[in-house]
Specification:
By secondary structure, this protein is mainly α. The chain has a domain of about 90 residues. Helix 1 packs antiparallel against helix 3 and helix 4 runs antiparallel to helix 5.
Length: about 130
């Protein structure tokens, strides 16, 4: 859980940095457009997929809940952090609320979590077959 907390602090720290004037100039070029359309969404996806990975490991290693409960908790916490982070950016100079960022953050959390669930099922199926075989 410590890694998940540290990663969340990093997310909020980075999103607390005001947007600079260079970024405004860059947005008027094709490089800025490419960054805004492709790179930013991918980065949001990746940063929240990593958060989901840390959360899944924290809850799954605790061993107190089944996979579906782990999945539900990770989705709730991850998406909540995404929303809170975007609202938080409303109060940062030259930053604003971006619904598209929440969508990409949520996709990162969701796909990473579901990917873990699928891998866990396959791992358990394979280990069950070995035991019975």
């Amino acid at each position: 859980m410590i890694l998940a907390i540290m990663w969340t602090v990093l997310i909020f720290t980075v999103s607390s940095i005001p947007s600079n004037e260079l970024q405004k100039v860059e947005e008027k070029t094709w490089i800025g457009t490419l960054r805004k359309v492709l790179l930013d969404p991918v980065m949001h996806f990746i940063e929240f997929a990593v958060l989901a990975f840390f959360l899944v490991n924290a809850f799954a290693n605790a061993g107190e809940m089944d996979r579906i409960r782990v999945l539900k908790r990770v989705l709730f916490i991850g998406i909540s952090i995404a929303v809170i982070d975007e609202v938080h950016q409303c109060f940062i100079p030259l930053r604003n609320f971006q619904f598209g960022d929440i969508v990409m953050d949520s996709l990162g959390v969701s796909l990473a979590s579901v990917g873990w669930l699928v891998c866990e099922k396959k791992k358990n199926c394979c280990s069950d077959e070995r035991r019975s075989g």
